[in-house]
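I am writing to request your help with a piece of structural work I have in hand. Here, with my thanks, is the record as I have it:
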Amino acid sequence: MWATSVGVARVRALETERENALFRDPLARAFAAAGGLWPSSPPLPDDEAARRRRRAVSFSIVIRTKFLDDLLQEACASGVRQVVLLGAGMDSRAFRTDWPEGTRLFEVDTAAPLDFKASVLHQERAVARCERITVAVDLRDDWPGALAAAGHDPAEPTAWIAEGLLIYLPEDAVELLLARISTQSAAGSRMGLTLGSRGVIERFGAGAVPGSAASMWLSEMPDDPVAWLAGHGWEARSHSLRERAAAYGRPINTPSQREERPGGLISAVRRSSGP
């Protein structure tokens, strides 16, 4: 599944080349090239519906990237100095973000993507702008233990990012992941999540090519994600892709449709420590 993160890198590389880019990711092109997705584009399906779905997914990746960039900036402004990227993939925020002094960023993923990423970073001579710590562990295993062993301090506030991750996990695994995050989160911790709606999973998964990202989507967002997170001790806000796109100067000009785009955007604050 980690190869899908190379596809995300390709989307970020294309956005970076735009004159009015919402973000700049100078490493994205190198990740995409090493993964065989640059400079040539993968062949597109012939039908227009498939092309529209591909454009919609790419658009959602751009908007969610900007959304989570802003969330992390706000977390740092509030004094948070620990960041954990769950299922980090080809995320390059350790290298492209201006972090406050003393920031420690943990990238949690399995060994294969971390090794691939390390080879590209070495080739590009990339230098992190914070203390970057990789944690090679499967999220189905004891990742909190591995994170603690790597130096994460649950007594200090943490900014957690699960970007494009939960949609690939079954419902029980999503609940376990959130419970584990919550037990490791001191008061003042922040969290950014991307969620997929039932309509999105059904529409995009129906015509998905076997082995493609959409063919592996499983977990739909709760009907009320704010209440769901409140049950885990988080004060959350839910943002639509349309709302955020308009705020970023990329309005969606087509009429609004129910559950129309992938990627519900969630920001949350931990008001008290413990479960």
Observations:
- The chain has ten helices and seven strands.
